[in-house]
Specification:
- By secondary structure, the chain is α/β, with parallel strands linked by helices.
- The chain has an eight-stranded mixed beta sheet. It has a four-stranded antiparallel beta sheet with strand order 11-14-15-18, with no helix packed on it.
- The radius of gyration is 32 Å and the shape is globular.
Length: 271
């Protein structure tokens, strides 16, 4: 009985120690920070730790090889990071599919960025704004089917770009090791901007707008002792917008005297 109890206590202690060892954390080493063991998103302001911010002037390690599995980088992703003097971000080997607008703007001294071996396929407009000092960008082994080279314009000193391992190239090149090559790619291989609007609906994919305009006109006509009132009511009924067309139904005018006029339905198609 005593032996069985001791075994149970030992198992509990081992599990507790294992959980402590594997708990996600951010630790400083020299002038850098290493975040590991289970981050599925960037650390919160609290999770970044309380290291002296002036001490961290090196690398922010957030590698998938350290047990992380970080997903998309949202807009302004690094704004909550307190280590503004870091010059290098290492995000290799995670599961990042998208880079949001101004994702790295919270790190104004950034000059080296590793995003290789992720699942990237989308770079938002303005994704690289705020990091004008960036010189090296590694994006190899991702899932790009095309690449918006115009997104590189906010980085005027970018001199090294790697895109190998994606289904994309510019004039046969997927590795750009000179500033002149990158400038040529921006000029020659930028793709047209496509602005999409996402609409969330609960029951249908079409949004319906109903506008009813009622105009009442009263005119008083007096002949001797007789007073006559005429009321005209105009109702502009359903104006409906679907995914591909705009339809305007009936405009009807009805007067109190019983006469009725009706316009025919019109339909305007949008491109």
């Amino acid at each position: 009985m005593v032996h069985a109890t001791m075994m149970k206590v030992s198992v509990v202690i081992v599990l507790m120690v294992s959980e402590c060892i594997m708990a996600k954390s951010c630790e400083d080493s020299s002038s850098s920070i290493t975040c590991k063991n289970g981050f599925v998103a960037l650390p919160t302001s609290k999770e970044w730790g309380k290291v002296d911010v002036d001490k961290i002037t090196g690398i922010l390690f957030l590698k998938g090889q350290d047990g992380n599995s970080i997903g998309d980088l949202p807009d302004n992703a690094f704004d909550s990071c307190p280590y503004k003097k870091a010059y290098y971000v290492w995000l290799s080997g995670n599961k990042i599919t998208r880079i949001g607008k101004r994702a790295f703007a919270g790190l104004p001294l950034l000059d080296n960025l590793r995003l290789d071996n992720n699942l990237l396929s989308e770079v938002a407009m303005g994704a690289f704004e705020g990091i004008s000092k960036l010189e090296v960008l590694r994006l190899q082994n991702n899932a790009f089917m095309s690449f918006p080279f115009q997104r590189l314009k906010p980085m005027p000193v970018l001199r090294w770009l790697e895109l190998q391992g994606n289904r994309v190239s510019c004039q046969g090149q997927s590795k750009f090791i000179y500033r002149s090559m990158i400038e040529r790619a921006i000029q020659s291989c930028s793709i047209p901007e496509v602005i999409t609007t996402r609409t969330t609906t609960t029951k249908t994919t079409a949004s319906t707008t109903r506008t009813i305009t009622t105009t009442t006109t009263k005119s008083l006509t007096t002949t001797k002792s007789l007073t006559k009132t005429t009321t005209t009511k105009t109702i502009v009924t359903v104006s409906r917008t679907t995914d591909s067309s705009t339809e305007t139904n009936t405009i009807a005018t009805v007067s109190a005297s019983g006469t009725k006029s009706k316009s025919t339905a019109t339909m305007a198609s949008s491109p």
